[in-house]
Specification:
mainly alpha; 0% strand; chloride channel activity; Cl-channel_core; chloride channel; 480 residues; Clc chloride channel
């Protein structure tokens, strides 16, 4: 386990009966259905609004730092306009300066106001579920939002779901404190915040609900969070959609593939094996970068700035690694656009994106790991398609869409230990539920292979419910 910033101690016992006023008393005395209907809607509204605010903050920060200062427009997915981005760098010398400056300013804010807001955020939210659902400070929510917008908006390789998860979970932690919820209810609330925040920012409500029940364990599923998750995630999606629109993030990717024979399914076996290997490398390289960063000299401000500089220099050679990269994943699914990207970049990009994310987030920057995982998977699928199409092998589809979508699901679904949730989320993000026959084969193989290891991208996950219960019982015995 990596070293974690020390959080201020919070009370673990429920506050007095007066906590939260009449609304808090109503919740504490309500039955299961009424309690989670009220709490679910409240958490959903907060998560949806938090996702909207962070999305807009990141959008305008990116337009100013990369667009105005560096003169570079990154591609955007169909759900955000479908802009193909700049053909090249207008001011290439400005790219490393902007990535370094953004990382430096982000690190300064985090170090000054909330050191626990460093990193990708999801691990901290998961740890709060298992350890203390009241432990996330309100200040960390605001710091995380600003710091992540600066890191990703300046070109750092990170996703927006990790910050959104910590923002939503932070508000749920505040609700737990203010409303005097029990520890068990607080744990469910924070888990719902994680799922609702990620589901909202990706416009994937069903996947968000399933994610809330699966992301806190490596090899288990929390059924208590599933039904409230439908209410919470659906409400968050409604709030975000009402303000930003309901289109899928990647539009409706053409991933139709007619299975007329069984043997072409072997291609999805190949995707499962290769995506599992790349996902394994993603986790190992990222965690190694975190461990190495702790051992290297320099403070919590200098290290992220150096990481930002290195990412900026890498970006001059491989622009696809800059920022979130969702627009590049969109282009990878389009045959004409993919054929215009040099083959060597397509093949190298999954590893390059892993290195860039490790330099941006593993050194102490602020951003998520889910988004880069989707981009990494997209180019795993694109590389397999390009190489198969180039060699003329049988069974390769006419367009790369189905390989790209399935590899998105497979790569991050396996390494996050939440394969079902990620498979549903990517299907919602791409409008591609027709890929399920190939996806279940690829995702199943990758998840089985990953289960043979002890590797996960989220180190705060507990093995299962029994492990988590034993840990909580041990802490309670220690207090007694």
């Amino acid at each position: 386990m990596k070293d974690r910033p020390r959080q201020d101690p919070q009370p673990t016992a429920a506050p007095p009966d007066a906590a939260g006023g009449r609304f808090g008393a109503t919740l504490r005395n309500a039955g299961y259905l009424r309690k989670w209907l009220l709490l679910g809607i409240t958490i959903g509204v907060i998560s949806g609004l938090g996702a909207v605010v962070f999305y807009l903050a990141l959008k305008y920060t990116t337009e100013f730092l990369l667009g105005y200062l560096a003169g570079y427009q990154i591609p955007t997915p169909v759900g955000e306009g479908g802009n193909r981005g700049s053909a090249g760098f207008m001011r290439p010398w400005a790219i490393p300066l902007v990535t370094t400056g953004g990382a430096l300013l982000s690190a300064l804010i985090v170090a000054k106001f909330a050191p626990e807001a460093t990193g990708h955020g999801t691990d901290e939210a998961i740890e709060a579920v298992h350890s203390n659902p009241r432990a996330i400070r309100g200040r960390a929510v605001l710091v995380k939002m600003v710091a992540s917008a600066l890191t990703i908006g300046s070109g750092g390789s990170g996703g927006r779901e990790g910050p959104t998860a910590q923002i939503s979970a932070g508000f749920c932690s505040l609700l737990t404190r203010r409303l005097g919820l029990s520890d068990d209810d607080g744990r469910i609330a924070v888990a719902l915040g994680i799922g609702a925040g990620i589901g909202a920012i990706f416009a994937a409500p069903l996947g968000g609900a399933v994610l809330a029940a699966s992301i806190i364990y490596r090899d288990d599923f929390d059924y208590q969070s599933l039904l409230p998750g439908f209410i919470t995630s659906g409400t968050a999606y409604a709030v975000l959609g009402a303000l930003l629109g309901f289109d899928p993030l990647f539009g409706y990717i053409d991933a139709e593939y007619r299975f007329e024979k069984a043997w072409p399914l072997l291609w999805f076996v190949v995707i499962g094996v290769i995506a599992a290997a790349v996902g394994y490398l993603y986790a190992r390289i990222f965690h190694a970068s975190v461990a190495l960063t702790h051992r290297l000299p320099g403070g919590p401000v200098i290290k992220p700035a150096i990481g930002g500089l290195l990412v900026g220099l890498m970006g001059l050679l491989i622009p696809q690694i800059l920022s979130s990269g969702y627009g590049w994943a969109q282009l990878a699914s389009d045959k004409d656009a993919l054929m215009q990207i040099p083959l060597w970049i397509i093949v190298v990009l999954p590893i390059a994106k892993i290195v860039a994310t490790s330099l941006s987030i593993g050194t102490g920057g602020s951003g998520g790991l889910f988004g880069p995982g989707i981009v990494i998977g997209a180019f795993v699928g694109a590389a397999i398609w390009r190489l198969g199409e180039l060699t003329g092998l049988a069974g390769v589809p006419d367009a790369p869409g189905i390989f790209v979508v399935v590899a998105m699901m497979t790569c991050f679904g396996s390494v996050s230990r939440a394969p079902l949730a990620v498979m549903i989320m990517v299907a919602e993000m791409t409008g591609s539920f027709s890929v399920v026959p190939g996806a279940i084969l690829a995702v199943g193989i990758a998840s089985l292979l990953m289960s043979l290891t002890n590797v996960t991208i989220y180190e705060s996950q507990r093995l299962n419910r029994e492990t988590a219960l034993a840990e909580r019982a041990g802490r309670a015995a220690g207090r007694d």
